[in-house]
Amino acid sequence: MEFCQIYVVTSKLQLLESNICRCPDPEYARKMIVAIDAVRVRGDSVGGVVTCIGLGSPVFDKLEAELAKTTLSLHATKGFEFGSGFAG
């Protein structure tokens, strides 16, 4: 279920802590919470797609490696993709 696309040009870090979704846009945070609650009532779960935009490329500790390591350490995670990933 796709319920919103969030485009953040600039954000304030304080807004990340203002809601349980850690979304910097209060309106989209509310939509996300409503959608999550609706799915939870049905006994289902949701997933998400995050596009990280960064400048530069470090030699060590690349963002993709850290994201994969962190995400795949969660027992419920069954996949993690980069680029076209699973779509091929």
From TrEMBL:
Record's keyword annotation contains Lyase: yes
Gene3D superfamilies: Chorismate synthase AroC (3.60.150.10)
An example Gene Ontology biological process: chorismate biosynthetic process
Alphabetical list of PANTHER family matching this protein: CHORISMATE SYNTHASE
EC identifiers of the protein: 4.2.3.5
Annotated pathway: Metabolic intermediate biosynthesis; chorismate biosynthesis; chorismate from D-erythrose 4-phosphate and phosphoenolpyruvate: step 7/7
Gene Ontology MF: a single term: FMN binding
Entry similarity comment: Belongs to the chorismate synthase family.
Pfam families for the chain: Chorismate_synt
Keywords of the record: Amino-acid biosynthesis, Aromatic amino acid biosynthesis, Lyase
Species: Artemisia annua
Protein name per its UniProtKB record: chorismate synthase
GO cellular component, one term: cytosol
